[in-house]
C-alpha cells in the first residue's frame, strides 16, 4: 500500500509536467540533438550485438519512451548501450534471438523486483577499481570484435580474441583500405569535433562526412542495408526455440547486473552535471525494468540509461522527461520518412563509433589515478581486467569481487603494534592500531620477544585508543599474551578501551584477570606509583608527541603544509581551562578549524579600552583579522571556578590573581543569584554572552546576522552538549 501511494505521487509529480508548455522549446531542441546521437549509436550497438539494424532502433524508440516515463532520473536517456554489446553478442551467439528476448524480459522483471525492494543503492558498494576494470575490459573486447567489420571480412565462427589473432593474416592479406580509412576518419571526427562544438555535432559530422565521401567518390563499402517498414510491432517469443534454460537464466542474471550497473552509473553522471534533482535509484530500476520488458515484447535488445545520450541531453538544455520521449519519436520519424539516411550508412562508420567508445572505455589516466591513490586498487583493476578478457564478463566480475573481498579482508585483519619504551626502560607502551582478529597472533607474539630482550621492564601497557575492531579470537590472543607476561613477573594494563572492546575482553576472560583495565591516564599513574615506578609527566607528553607524529602528522602532511601558509578558522570558541574539555574532540574538528580561547570559568571580560585582558585581544583578532563569523561560548557542568564563586560569595580564597578573576564571575551572580553551582554554570554563561555584546561592533553584527553567537554547556557526566534556545528560554540537548 505504501509503495502504491509513492508510485502515485511519482506519476503525479513527474508525468504532469510533460503536458505543460513550460520549457517546450528547450526540450525539443535537446531531443533533436539526442536523436542525432541515438541513431548511429543504436545502429552501432546492433552491429556489435549481431542483430539487424532495426532491432537497435526498436530498442531506442520503445526503451526511450518507457524509460523516460517511469525512470527515476529526469534527464537520463534510455537506449541500447555500447557497454552491453559484448554480453548481448555472446547471448545471441549461444541462444539465438529468441534467447536474447527472454534475457531482456527476465532482466526487466528483476530490475522491477529490485527497485520495489529498494535495493537500488547496492551499486554504491561496488569498488571503483572493479567498475573501471569492467568498463576497460568491455572496451578491449569490443575493439577486437570490430576488426572483421573494419576489414570487411566474415567474422570467425567464434569471435574471441584468440580467434581474432589467428585470423590476423587474413586481415593483413585482404585489407579493405576504404573501410579502414572510413573507420579512422570517424574516430578522428569524434575525437576532434567535441573540442570546438557540442558533442551532438560530432556524431552528425561522423556520419555525414563519410557518407558524402562515398557519394562523391563512388567507393564500394558495406552499408547497413534495408530497414523493415513494419518496425514497431509486438514480437511473440518462441519459447520452444530455447534450449538450456538453466544457462539462459544465468545469462539473464548477467544482463540484469550489467544493465542495472550501467543505468545507475549513467544516472550518477547526470547528477554530477548538476542539473535538476538527484536521481532515485529504486525508481530508476523500476523504469528500466518496464523499458526492458517493453523492448523485449516489441523485439528489441536490452536497454540501459546511456551516459553518451544523457550527457548530450543535459548539455543541450533539456528541462523535463519530455526531451527523452521526443527523441524517440524523432528516431521513429527518421526511420519511416528518411530511411535512406540509415540504410546507406557505412558499416565502417559504425565500427568507428564503437572503436571510439572502446578507446574511451580503456582510459589509461584512470589507471594512473588509481596508482596515485591506492596501489592495491590497481591490483584489483588488473585482476578484473585480465579475468574479463581471458574468460568472460561475469566470470571477470566474480573474480574481481573475490579479489576485492580478499584484499579488503586482509586489510581489516591487519594489526599494527607500535612499541615505545617509556620511563627509564621499565614501562613498555604498545599502541594497537587497525584490527585484531584470530589471525593476529603471530604479530602480537612479537611483543613477547621484545619483552624478553628488555629485562628491566616492569609494566606493559596496551593502548586501545587507535584500535578499530577486535573479535573474540583477537581478544583471546591478547589475554593469552597478558597471562604469559604476568607469569613472567610483569604487570599488564589494557588502557583506553572502548565499551564494546572491554565487553569482548571480559567475555573472553576465564578465571582470574591477569591484567588491569584503565580508562584515564591518571589511573596508570596510580598503578605505577603503587609499584614504585618513577612517573614523569614529560614522558607522557613525549609519548603523545610520538603518536601524533606517526599517526597524524605523517598522514596529513598536505593539510599541515596548507595551514602553514595561514589559518582560516570557521569558529571562535571561548571555553574553560578544565582538563576534561577537549574542544576539537567535541566538534570532531580538524586542526585549523577552531580558534580557541581558554581560561578559568570561560570568562569574557567586559570590554573597556584600558583593560589588558588577553581575551579581548584574541576576540578582536579572530573577528577583525581572521574573519571569524561564528562564536561559541562553551561552559561545562561541575565547573570548579563556578563552584568556588558560589561557595565563597563575597569572600576571598587568598590567591590574588584567582580572587580577582573570580570577581568577573561573581559580578554576574550579583545580578542573578544562583541557588547552587549547577544553576551558577548557566547564569555565568549567559552573563558572559552579555559581556561579549559590549565589544565594539559585536551588537551591530549580531543584529544584522553577520555574526552568530551560541551559548553551549558540556555535560561532563554524559558527554552531551546543551545549547541555549531563545524560543524555549532554556538549554536543550543538541543530540
Descriptive labels:
single chain; alpha/beta; Transcription Regulator spoIIAA; six-stranded mixed beta sheet; 30 helices; 59% helix
Q: How would you characterize this protein structure?
A:
It is built from 30 helices and 14 strands. It is of the alpha/beta class. The protein has 4 domains: 2-362, no CATH class; 376-412, no CATH class; 414-549, Transcription Regulator spoIIAA (2-Layer Sandwich), CATH 3.30.750; 566-733, Beta-carbonic Anhydrase, Chain A. The strands form 3 sheets. Strands 3, 4, 5, 6, 7 and 8 form a 6-stranded mixed sheet that branches. The chain has a 6-stranded mixed sheet with strand order 10-9-11-12-13-14, covered by helices on one side. Strands 1-2 form a two-stranded antiparallel ribbon.
Amino acid at each position: 500500500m505504501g509503495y502504491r501511494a509513492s508510485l502515485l505521487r511519482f506519476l503525479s509529480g513527474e508525468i504532469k509536467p510533460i503536458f505543460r508548455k513550460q520549457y517546450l522549446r528547450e526540450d525539443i531542441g535537446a531531443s533533436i540533438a539526442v536523436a542525432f546521437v541515438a541513431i548511429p549509436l543504436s545502429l552501432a550497438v546492433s552491429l556489435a550485438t549481431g542483430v539487424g539494424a532495426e532491432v537497435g532502433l526498436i530498442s531506442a524508440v520503445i526503451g526511450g519512451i518507457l524509460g523516460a516515463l517511469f525512470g527515476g532520473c529526469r534527464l537520463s536517456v534510455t537506449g541500447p548501450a555500447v557497454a552491453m554489446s559484448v554480453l548481448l553478442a555472446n547471448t545471441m551467439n549461444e541462444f539465438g534471438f529468441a534467447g536474447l528476448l527472454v534475457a531482456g524480459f527476465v532482466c526487466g522483471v528483476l530490475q522491477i523486483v529490485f527497485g520495489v525492494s529498494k535495493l537500488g543503492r547496492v551499486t554504491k558498494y561496488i569498488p571503483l577499481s572493479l567498475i573501471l576494470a569492467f568498463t576497460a575490459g568491455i572496451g578491449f573486447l569490443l575493439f577486437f570484435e570490430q576488426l572483421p567489420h573494419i576489414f570487411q571480412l566474415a567474422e570467425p565462427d567464434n569471435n574471441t580474441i584468440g580467434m581474432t589473432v589467428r585470423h590476423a593474416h587474413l586481415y593483413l592479406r585482404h585489407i579493405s583500405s576504404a573501410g579502414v580509412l572510413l573507420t579512422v576518419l570517424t574516430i578522428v571526427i569524434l575525437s576532434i569535433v567535441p573540442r570546438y562544438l557540442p558533442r551532438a555535432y560530432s556524431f552528425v559530422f561522423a556520419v555525414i562526412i563519410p557518407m558524402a565521401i562515398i557519394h562523391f567518390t563512388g567507393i564500394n563499402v558495406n552499408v547497413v542495408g534495408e530497414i523493415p517498414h513494419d518496425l514497431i510491432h509486438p514480437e511473440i517469443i518462441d519459447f520452444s526455440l530455447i534450449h538450456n534454460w538453466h544457462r539462459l537464466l544465468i545469462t539473464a542474471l548477467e544482463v540484469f547486473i550489467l544493465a542495472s550497473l550501467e543505468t545507475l552509473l549513467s544516472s550518477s553522471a547526470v547528477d554530477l552535471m548538476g542539473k535538476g534533482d538527484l536521481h532515485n535509484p529504486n525508481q530508476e530500476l523500476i523504469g528500466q525494468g518496464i523499458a526492458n520488458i517493453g523492448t523485449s515484447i516489441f523485439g528489441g535488445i536490452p536497454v540501459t540509461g546511456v551516459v553518451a545520450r544523457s550527457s548530450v541531453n543535459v548539455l543541450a538544455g533539456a528541462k523535463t522527461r519530455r526531451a527523452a520521449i521526443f527523441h524517440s519519436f524523432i528516431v521513429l520519424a527518421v526511420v519511416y520518412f528518411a530511411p535512406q539516411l540509415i540504410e546507406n550508412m557505412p558499416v565502417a562508420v559504425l565500427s568507428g563509433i564503437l572503436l571510439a567508445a572502446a578507446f574511451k572505455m580503456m582510459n589509461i589516466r584512470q589507471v594512473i589515478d588509481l596508482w596515485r591513490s591506492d596501489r592495491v586498487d590497481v591490483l584489483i583493476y588488473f585482476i578484473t581486467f585480465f579475468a574479463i578478457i581471458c574468460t568472460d564478463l561475469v566470470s571477470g566480475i566474480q573474480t574481481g569481487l573475490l579479489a576485492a573481498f580478499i584484499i579488503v579482508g586482509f586489510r581489516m585483519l591487519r594489526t599494527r603494534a607500535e612499541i615505545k619504551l617509556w620511563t627509564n626502560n621499565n614501562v613498555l607502551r604498545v599502541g594497537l592500531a587497525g584490527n585484531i582478529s584470530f589471525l593476529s597472533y603471530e604479530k602480537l607474539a612479537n611483543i613477547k620477544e621484545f619483552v624478553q630482550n628488555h629485562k628491566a621492564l616492569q609494566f606493559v601497557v596496551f593502548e586501545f585508543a587507535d584500535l578499530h575492531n577486535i573479535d573474540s579470537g583477537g581478544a583471546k590472543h591478547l589475554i593469552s599474551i597478558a597471562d604469559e607476561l604476568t607469569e613472567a613477573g610483569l604487570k599488564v594494563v589494557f588502557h583506553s578501551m572502548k565499551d564494546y572492546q572491554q565487553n569482548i575482553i571480559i567475555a573472553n576472560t576465564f578465571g582470574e584477570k591477569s591484567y588491569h583495565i584503565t580508562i584515564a591516564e591518571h589511573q596508570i599513574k596510580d598503578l605505577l606509583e603503587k609499584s614504585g615506578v618513577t612517573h614523569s609527566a614529560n614522558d607522557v607528553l613525549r609519548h603523545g608527541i610520538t603518536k601524533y607524529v606517526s599517526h597524524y602528522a605523517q598522514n596529513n602532511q598536505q593539510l599541515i603544509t596548507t595551514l602553514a601558509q595561514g589559518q582560516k578558522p570557521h569558529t571562535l570558541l571561548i571555553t574553560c581551562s578544565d582538563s576534561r574539555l577537549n574542544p576539537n574532540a567535541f566538534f570532531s574538528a580538524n586542526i585549523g578549524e577552531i580558534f580557541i580561547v581558554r581560561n578559568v570559568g570561560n570568562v569574557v571580560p567586559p570590554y573597556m579600552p584600558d583593560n589588558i585582558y588577553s581575551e579581548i585581544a584574541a576576540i578582536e583578532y579572530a573577528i577583525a583579522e581572521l574573519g571569524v563569523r561564528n562564536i561559541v561560548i562553551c561552559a561545562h557542568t561541575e565547573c570548579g571556578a563556578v563552584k568556588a564563586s558560589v561557595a565563597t560569595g563575597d569572600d576571598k580564597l587568598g590567591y590574588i590573581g584567582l580572587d580577582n578573576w573570580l570577581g568577573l564571575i561573581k559580578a554576574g551572580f550579583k545580578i542573578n543569584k544562583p541557588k547552587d553551582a549547577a544553576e551558577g554554570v548557566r547564569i555565568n554563561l549567559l552573563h558572559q554572552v552579555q559581556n561579549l555584546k559590549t565589544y565594539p561592533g559585536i551588537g551591530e553584527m549580531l543584529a544584522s546576522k553577520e555574526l552568530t553567537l551560541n551559548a553551549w554547556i558540556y555535560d561532563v557526566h554524559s558527554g552531551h552538549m546543551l545549547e541555549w534556545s531563545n524560543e524555549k528560554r532554556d538549554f536543550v540537548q543538541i543530540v
